[in-house]
Amino acid sequence: MIIPARFNGPAGSANGGYACGLVARLLDGPAEVTLRVPPPLGTTLSVVRDDDRIGVYAGATLVAEARPVEPLGPADAVPPVPGPEAAEAARSYPGFSVHPFPTCYVCGPRRAAGDGLRIFPGPLPDGRTAAPFTVPADYSPATAWAALDCPGGWSVLSPGRPYVLGRMAATVLAAPRPGDACVAVGRCDRAEGRKAHVSTSLYDPDGALLATARATWIALDIESVTGVTAG
To answer: Over the stretch 82-112, which tens digit does the pLDDT of each residue have?
Structure first.
């Protein structure tokens, strides 16, 4: 397995959701993936199977682990919002002003259309986030996991308080068509210390649930993040 450089999150490492999606496909059915270190880009990663668990390594370093989990469904999903409401929320995306990782494949404002997903989750009045999402031509299950990543994270991210993905479980129910105008919504379920537990869901243009996820994000010290900049 090699994660191409295009699919970065923080500079020099993979977008967490995309990396989790690649690892999850090594299992049959819904999976939970835990990232142990920032997933490297352009590096050959080896896969070790142990019963129903998967370990992904860069040399001797454990990068990620995956295990099967019960599927998530509508009862676990973040409630949808109409496309126009999501578009209005995205106008207030905090990452336009200050972004810890401005070239992120999913939510980086410095990524061009057609190169990054350009999902810009803005706040809703009830604390959820929402953003429109145009499905790319190269959409895959890993793309779905990527799109499920940052909208949940931006329910807790704030200037001076960057987070990165630590663990993610997702269920992909259906695939949209390239070019579809979909909606991503995120929600913080609870926070404790440096950990934030969030949920994210994707909906198709008609409001049907495409995929849903739960994730744990880990807060970083601002001094440990380089390149924090205006979008």
So the answer is: 999 999 999 999 999 999 999 999 999 999 9
Asked if pLDDT for residue 228 goes beyond 60, the answer is: no
The residues spanned by each domain of the chain are: 5-224
Strand partners, 167: 34, 216
Which amino acid, residue 163?
Answer: Y
Residue 222: band (very low, low, confident or very high) from pLDDT cuts 50, 70, 90: low
Select from 131, 9, 19 the least CA-distant residue to 78: 131
Query: What is the number of residues in the chain?
Result: 231
- CB contact at 8 A, 129 and 9: no
The CATH code belonging to domain 5-224 is: 2.40.160.210
Reading the block at residue 50, the tokens are 């142990």
Burial of 101 (0-12, 13-18, 19+ CB in 10 A): buried
